[in-house]
Amino acid sequence: MQGLFGYGYLSGDGIALPDTPYVVIDLETTGLAADEDRIVEIAMGRVENGVLVDEWATLIDPQRDPGPTFLHHISAGMLDGAPTFREIAGEILARLDGAVVVAHNAAFEEGFLQAELARIGVTPPPIPALCTLIVSRLVLASPNYRLATCCEITGTPLDDAHTALGDVRATAILLPKLLSGGASPRYPVAPVPLPKVPSSRGPRTRVTNLRKGETGWMSSLLAKLPYSMDDHDPVGAEPYLDALGEALADGRLTGEQTRRLGRLAGRAGMGAAQVAGLHQRFLDALRDAALGDGPPTASEYRQLTTAAQLLNLPDYFADVLAPDGADVVEKRRRGPRVWCSPRVPAKVRTQLEDAGYLFAVNITRTVVAAVVAEGDERQPKAVRSQELGVRVLTPERAAELLRLAEEERAPLDLPAPSAPAGWYPDPTGRNMYRYWDGTLWTAQVSPGSGAIVADPLSR
After folding, report:
1. Residues 172 and 226 both lie in one domain
2. Residue 453: band (very low, low, confident or very high) from pLDDT cuts 50, 70, 90
């Protein structure tokens, strides 16, 4: 029987595919025999120009016992309600279409995928593939070539080994290191269109090995999920938000509460981007409740900032003025806020900071600009900037912010009322009311409808 993969090698004849994206895959299974055992989890990561740009993962109901739970930590209960391979096969094929498949010991993935596809009557043409186990034997000197050993030798992080997503992330980082010597794989086949198969169910993600660590429970939860799952079930948002409200009601977040949130996110097939979006939706609702009748009380302010801290968004309410009596850890610096994507050079960040800009942790409409470096355009926060209409600049164009910094931050010559802190007619004329803190006019304004928004004082 013809194999599912056409393997590439670092020498010999064949087709070079330098501009073709890679899709790194990993499977967890009920056992080792492809003709008898079944897939219980698959993860896929798309790599373009050496960068992991997309992740997708799902549990799969094998319609039998899950096998070695001690190894992959997938229980029968976790698989209850997960899609079968038939129900999710169309999504898998669509993600493999037009790409080179990569796996560590790819023959294992090949055997199980081919067997599962045969069971539903689908016979794809050969797909170009690269096995990092084969490549590592050529380029590494190692006592063995297990994924964990190859990662250790090359300094590649391997978190959550024996979870499909953890192994995909490690292999995606390992791959360019193995090819860094300039080798160009040659393949016996080029990508051709794969069969179109309808998918009738959405994915089911999972969260395992949660640890509070130094960054908190919620940071751990988000790190365990694929960073974006666009085909998740939106109905699952409400149970998650309800559970989140219950969890944060007493101003603390426990490991058990976080695990429950992880299970709810998984049942809805959500990724980190979707969960983070729900967190912002939750905090926005808290903001509306706290500011609906004017500036927040000290108790309301503590509730806002505590919730933001627990959700790993400590600066989410940076634009909310702390009332007298609020327990504020440190006085916040004032200044326009910008967000910089991960690849923005340190020199540009330093110039922005010296010019008086503050670095935003999350994207809101109060961010004056998002500086997005090449290769970061698909970062969730870069996409969010465009959705909110935030000004997006390349690092080269960030100089525009520096040139305008003094003008934009220069205080207006506004009358200073001899009055206690409170809401007064906006002296700029741009809004109905502006908040006077007893010493300075602030950025908090209101159109008179009870809503409070930010309008920084600038020319």
Report:
1. no
2. low
Q: Which pLDDT belongs to residue 331?
A: 39
Mark whether 87 and 170 lie in a shared domain: yes
Report the alpha-carbon angle 175-179-180, nearest 5: 110
**Domain C-terminal end among 409, 428, 451:** 409
What's the rounded Cα separation, in Å, for the pair 175 and 351? 35
pLDDT at site 422: 67
Contacts of 178 (CB under 8 A, 6+ apart): 132, 135, 136, 139, 140, 154
Task: Tell me, yes or no, whether 326 lies in a domain.
Answer: no
The total domain count for the chain is 4
394 and 443 both lie in a single domain: no
- The verdict on residue 210 lying in a domain is no
- Write down the residue that tokens 């590494």 correspond to: 140
Give residue 113's pLDDT. Answer: 98
| Structure tokens given for 28 | 């967890």
Q: Based on the domain organization, do 272 and 404 belong to the same domain? A: no
pLDDT > 90 fraction of the chain, expressed in percent and rounded:
52
Measured distance CA(311)–CA(277) in Å, rounded: 11
Can you tell me the distance from the alpha carbon of 99 to that of 321, in angstroms, rounded to the nearest whole number?
51
What mean pLDDT value characterizes the chain? 86
84: left (phi over 0), alpha (psi -120 to 50) or beta: beta
Q: Are residues 366 and 268 in the same domain?
A: no
Decide if 192 is inside a domain: no
CATH code for position 348: 3.40.50.10190
What CATH number corresponds to the domain at position 84? 3.30.420.10
In the chain, how many H helices and how many E strands?
15, 16
Beta bridge partners of 46: 23, 54
| Domain carrying residue 455 | 410-459
Q: At 427, list the tokens.
A: 């002296």
Provide the angle, in degrees to the nearest 10, between the axes of the packed helices 237-248 and 298-310.
120
DSSP state of 368: E
Residue showing tokens 């006077």: 436
Q: Each residue of 138-176: pLDDT tens digit? A: 999 999 999 999 999 999 988 888 899 999 999 999 999
Let me know if residue 22 belongs to a domain.
yes
Which of 122-131, 385-394, 414-423, 428-437 has the lowest average pLDDT?
A: 414-423
Q: Which residue has the higher pLDDT, 351 or 126?
A: 126
